[in-house]
Fold Hydrogenase-4 component E.
Amino acid sequence: MNLLIILLMTTAFFLTRVTNMRTAVGIFLAQSVMIALASIIIGFETGEVHYYLAGLLTVVIKVAFIPYILFKIVKRLKNERETNSLLSPNLSSLAAAGTTVLAYGFIDQALPGVISRDALAAAIALVLIGLQIIMIRRQAVLQIVGLNIMENGLYLLGLSVTNGLPLILELGIFFDMLVAVAVLGILTYRLKISYASTDTTLLRKLKG
C-alpha cells in the first residue's frame, strides 16, 4: 500500500508539470489504476466483497470509460497544449510540494500517531493538488483531469478513514463523475468549435 501511495504522489507531481493534454489523461489513467488496486488490496486484507466491486467499478469507469472520452476529445483537439497557465511548471511543482508538506503537517498535528498517516496525508494532498490544477490551468481538458484527481483523493480518503465508503455512496459518486465528465466534455468540444481553442479564459467574452 505504501508503494501505491508513493506512486500516486509521483504521478500527481508529474501532472503539475505536464502541458500535453494526452499525457495528462494518461497520467490520470495510471493513477486510477492505482486507486483500483488500493481498493482490491483492502478487499483482500479484509475479506469484504464490496471492496472488490468498488475496484471493478473504478476500472470500468475511471480506467476505461472516462479516459476513453477524454482521449477522444484530445484527438479532436489536434496538437493543442497548455500555453497560458497561471503558474510555470516549476512554480506549480513547488506549490504541490508545499501542499504535500502542509498535508503531512496537518495530519501529524490533528491525528498524531494515526496508523494510516501516509494514506490520509496523500489523500488530502491529492485533493489540494487537483484543486490547484483546476485553478491554474486554462485548458478545459486539464481542468477536467484536475477534477478527477480531486475525486481520486477523496476516494483514497474514504479508504483510509473508514476502510471504504458504503457501496451505494460509491455508486452515487461514480455516477456524478460520469455526468460531470460527459457535460464538461461536450462544453469543451463546443468551446473548440466556437473559439478554435479550449482555453477557458475565452469564456470571459460571454460576459454582458
